Amino acid sequence: MRSTTPARPPQLSLLVEILDWLLAPIIVLWPLSVVVTFWVANSIANIPYDRALRDSVNALAQHVRFERGRGRIVLPAAASSFLRADEVDTIWFQVRGTRGEVLAGDHELSEIFPEDEQTQNIVYFRDDDWHHEPVRIAYLFLFAPDQPHRRAVIQVGETLKKRQHLANEIIAGIIVPQFFLFPFAVLLVWFGLERGTLPLDRLRLRLLSRRPSDLSPIDVHDVPEEIAPLIDAFNNLMERLAQNLKAQERFIADAAHQMRTPLAGLRTQLEYALRQTDPAEVQASLERIRAGVERASHAISQLLSLARSQSETAPKFEPVDLNALVREVTQAFVAQALERRIDFGFEESALMAQVDGNPLLLRELFSNLVDNALRYTPPGGRVTVRVRVREFVVVEVEDNGIGIDEREQELIFERFYRVGGTEAVGSGLGLPIVRSIAVQHGAAVQVKPNPLERGSLFSVVFPRLDPPSAAQYTSPALPRAA
Fold it and tell me: Which of 196, 346, 416, 463 has the most CB atoms around it within 10 Å of its CB?
């Protein structure tokens, strides 16, 4: 059977990646450098041979004379032979008189005329074709004295074989060594990259030599500047991991702390029930065991809620109507309030009480507040839950129970802390859960004495999320459970 496991992509190499980025521009620019080298070589090769052509033109100009407005030249035969003496290139020359007639040299060279910016006694150059072969021509204009409209023209041209040979030698002297230097340069770059990545190898060995429990940060001063941001991110990750591990250790310790006493009690009750023969005593022991199991189940539920509220994972927020949410939570506790004969009521706001929050966590928050009020309010007491909207959205849980001493108002938010002087059964985790969830929602939890009578008033103040329309509305009030 053919495996359907997708193939893993090949692992990237940092050295190869850097080398690619270094060599790619060189490979792209190298042909351009060849073109530039060819142009520069030809320019350099023109310099000495243009100078020789200029000297030949000036030498011919010394033999030109003007008589009665007409040009003439007296050129020794040796001079003509000297001009054509070249073993590589073919050389032509021509001297034309003031009427365009050829006074000396080759007749095939075409006649030229001065352009606007050209003047006499200056040698100019041009490229041309001679018998389908490229040539370089130097030329000079000589004007008759007092008759500038009459002129003589001197031209000397040659083929480009010597120039091309010199240019090829220059190009070869530059390009050929590059073929040998390029691989050597690649090896040097690779060697430099290998040396440059040695700090990464040392860092890898340091990390491998660490104990599994060592989550301490790495000193960024011991690493290259380029990877310091990576080390900062790694240290931040280690810090968050350490916090998560501490949270897990704290959760395990809390669970062991909370379950040790209920389990010991259950074991004692089971051993006692096993020794009884009277069915009534056995029934009573089973009832106590059932109550113990309920307490243990509640403690576990509270521990899980506390762990969820302290999770590093950010919860998903959405607009939440606290009027509706708190009403639902209150309705869920009506049966418990009736069982304890507590006057239990809910008052909602006439304004839209909308906040940005997570419905599941907010339901957990208000459930713990209401449950806490019902547990610590004696039978016949009163518990009121209300929602008020002003600049903020405030949810209040008011009771006339045992009350909380001012010195304990901060301690009650610590885990496992319970107010003394009461027989109410609790885990000591409800209010820490309330504060943790409130902090996640940018809310503040306040507790103060009930201003009207004995008891406490808990308030959770949320930033208000303005709805698209701030219209008032009226909804039916929940009847009080008495």
Answer: 346
Q: What is the CATH number of the domain that holds 289?
A: 1.10.287
pLDDT at 364 over 70: yes
pLDDT single digits (tens) 263-319 = 666 676 677 677 777 777 777 777 777 766 766 665 666 556 555 555 555 678 899
Burial zone of 312 (CB within 10 Å; 0-12 exposed, 13-18 middle, 19+ buried): exposed
For tokens 């909602």, name the residue.
Answer: 348
Selection from 23, 19, 11, 20 nearest residue 193 by Cα: 19
Q: Identify residue 316 by its one-letter amino acid code.
A: K
Average pLDDT over residues 179-186: 80
Higher per-residue confidence, 365 vs 262? 365
Residue 471's pLDDT is 43
* Distance (Å) of CA 144 to CA 55, 60, 62, 125, 279: 22, 16, 14, 22, 151
Mean pLDDT within 110-115: 82
Inter-residue contact 393 to 224 (CB < 8 Å):
no
Residue 264 lies in a domain: yes
d(CA 138, CA 103): 17
Strand partners, 70: 67
Report how far residue 365's alpha carbon sits from residue 371's, in angstroms, rounded to the nearest whole number: 10
Give a yes or no: residue 371 inside a domain: yes
Backbone angles phi, psi at 392, to 5 degrees: -125, 170
**What does residue 371 show for φ and ψ, rounded to 5 degrees?**
-60, -40
Q: For residue 327, which of 201, 429, 463, 478 has the smallest C-alpha distance?
A: 478
Among 419, 370, 413, which Cα is nearest to 395's?
370
